[in-house]
Amino acid sequence: MSIAATVYDQIADALADTGYCVLADFLPKIMVDSLYQRVTHLSSDEFSQAGIGRKNQFQLNDKIRNDRTYWLAEDNAVDQAYLDCMEALKDEINQRLYMGLFRYESHYAHYAEGSYYQRHVDAFKGQSNRILTTLLYLNPDWSGLDGGELVMYDPDSNEQIEKIQPHYGKFILFLSDRFPHEVLAAKRDRYSISGWFHLNS
Ligand code: OGA
Ligand code: MN
Fold first, then answer.
1. What strand order describes the sheet that includes 181-183?
2. Where are the beta strands (DSSP E) in the chain?
3. What is the position in ligand 1's atom list of the atom closest to the CA of 148?
4. Rounded CA separation 149/172 (Å)
5. Which stretches of the chain are DSSP H helices?
6. How many Cβ atoms are within 10 Å of 157's Cβ, its own excluded?
7. 192 Cα nearest atom in ligand 1
């Protein structure tokens, strides 16, 4: 299960240059398949309604988002294999960019038909140690008619910079405190893994 060094070079170059990176595929297909099997076999009561904000500011607000989430479990072999890949990614990025990435947390997300996540940023400067966001999409045969695009906004001009379809195996990284983004309403079940690298705090 080896990922070429040139792929990490490409990620580091993109992060240094624009602050984000979209890879049509990154992880071995066999791993994406096992993650897809896992997320689609979790029962709906294992997912929790997603919240917004942190700790004492945490609130459920289904006007802002109405996906459901499930935190990856270290005692599950499929989840742990993914976490191992993110650990390797962390080391490769730190070697190239000295970002000081330390801890990683991630959850599966299920957007049922009609679900969305309104425009937000994943971290506010000084208020969070979320540094780098990752997204992996687990949607076989996604079509342009299925909605559910990730819309990324330019942090300076606020203009839309990209509208990204959540295609199977697509992997995205972006600086957590820089890019406002939103998930448009999905017209069918939409599965993903969201994750965040933190600094050591
Ligand atoms: C998030 C998020 C985007 C996506 O989980 O914070 O913005 O495309 N997800 O799933
Ligand atoms: Mn987000």
1. 117-120, 181-183, 150-153, 160-164
2. 20-23, 48-49, 68-71, 103-111, 117-120, 130-137, 150-153, 160-164, 171-175, 181-183, 190-198
3. 8
4. 13
5. 5-17, 29-41, 77-97
6. 8
7. 10
Nearest CA to ligand 1 atom 8: 150
Which ligand 1 atom sits nearest the alpha carbon of residue 166? 8
Nearest alpha-carbon partner for 177 in 140, 133, 137, 135: 133
How confident is the model over 154-174, as pLDDT tens digits? 999 999 999 999 999 999 999
Range scoring the smallest mean pLDDT among 36-45, 80-89, 117-126, 174-183: 117-126
Please give the domain boundaries of the chain with CATH numbers for all domains.
5-48+62-198 (2.60.120.620)
Cβ atoms of 42 and 196 closer than 8 Å: no
CA 153 to chain centre: 16
173 beta partners: 21, 134
> What are the pocket residues of ligand 1 if the criterion is a CB atom closer than 6 Å to any ligand atom?
109, 117, 122, 135, 150, 181, 183, 192, 194
